[in-house]
Amino acid sequence: MSENIVPKDLAGQIQEKLDGMNLSQCLTCGTCAGGCPATGLMDMDPRKFVRMLALGLYEEAVNHDWVWVCTMCKRCQAACPMDVDIPNLVFFARSQWPRETRPKGILASCDHHIRSRGGAMGVPLDDFKFTVEDVAEELAEEPGYEDFKVYVDKKGAEYALNQNSREPVTEPDELIPLWRILHKVGIDWTYYSEMWGGENYCMFLADDKNWEHIIRSQVRHLEDLGVKYLINTECGHSFFALWGGLRKYNISHNFELVSIVNLYAKWIREGKLKVSSDWNKDLKIKFTVQDPCNSTRKSLGNYFADDLRFVLKACVGEENFMEITPNRNNNFCCGGGGGSLQAGYPEDRLIYGKKKFDQIMKTGANYCVVPCHNCHAQIHELSEHYNGGFYVTHLWTFICLAMGELGENERVYLGPDLEEFGL
């Protein structure tokens, strides 16, 4: 437990931050703890955390390292009969730690984002532009993509797209499948230069000032470009950082924030994405999905989860889809959210994720399709750590495979059964 100095008026601050919520509303029923994968980690659980605050044990609760293991996935609140907002309590507890004592990984990612005005990996804009333009030139050499080009800050484009830093920094070939999809649909889109990174670790740091700064900077720039839609890439926390930030800080904007997953579904229904599951009729490879908490329970709900299933079934065959239980809004968090990947508690994170691992294993699926970068990294590690033997991929991989468009270097997360399929 940290030895931080907790403000003397903490009780008053808690009430103010939660709009006067009465902590005595907690019935101590334990529903929150019973459905939380973080229960028992560090000898703490959601019910115990709330009771400590209600009983005035403010310093012990707020300074507990568990607040960085909890992913703030909102499953506890969704199950609570009194709707006690435990995730907001955890966020507030994080915010009370002196900034320099918060987890170094999350802190560094937030500061990199602010300094670079790009993303959490601190990549300078010139490096980002060089990478995407270089990879785009390679794609333009393929038949059918001769006129493909990537734009940054194209004024008047209908769509703007954010980009998780992981692809341009560590796996640039993973940029291509999404580009193939956008090219096939034929939309007018652009990247943007100001805070182009989709991720937002200042939110996980509970740094309201910089979370808001990143969102407002993006909004000003996008308004100047005149876009009608901001497409959020396959990343749950980046969607919630935008969706939640726009609401929390009451930021007016003239564009519509949309998830790429919902657009996939729309374009397939409209016949603009011509996917087919015929490739899997004989192979009968089995698939399941992870419902990112930030895209489902915390924001778009089952609208996102249902479209996710529609898209995957269209690509692999409904008979080859294996449902995970529980699912959609009632899903279990995988343990990769809330900044946990960089919080510095890897053993607790892997124990947290065991419930998700067991869920996936029960489906018997060969692949878990994950439209979220943090979930992807966590579940990929879970499969390796617990010897699951299943593979973890992005959704865009199988959309392109189902269109016959997946390139040779775009298969890093596929198993041996599909490494060369269709080439």
From TrEMBL:
Keywords: 4Fe-4S, Electron transport, Iron, Iron-sulfur, Metal-binding, Transport. Residues 16-47 form the 4Fe-4S ferredoxin-type domain. It comes from the Bacteria. Transmembrane segments: none annotated. Gene3D superfamilies: Alpha-helical ferredoxin (1.10.1060.10). Signal peptide: none annotated. InterPro entries: 4Fe4S_Fe-S-bd (IPR017896), 4Fe4S_Fe_S_CS (IPR017900), Cys_rich_dom (IPR004017), Helical_ferredxn (IPR009051). SUPFAM superfamilies: alpha-helical ferredoxin. It holds the Pfam family Fer4_8. One of its GO terms (molecular function) is 4 iron, 4 sulfur cluster binding. This is Oxidoreductase. It comes from Dethiosulfatarculus sandiegensis. The lineage of its organism: Bacteria, Pseudomonadati, Thermodesulfobacteriota, Desulfarculia, Desulfarculales.
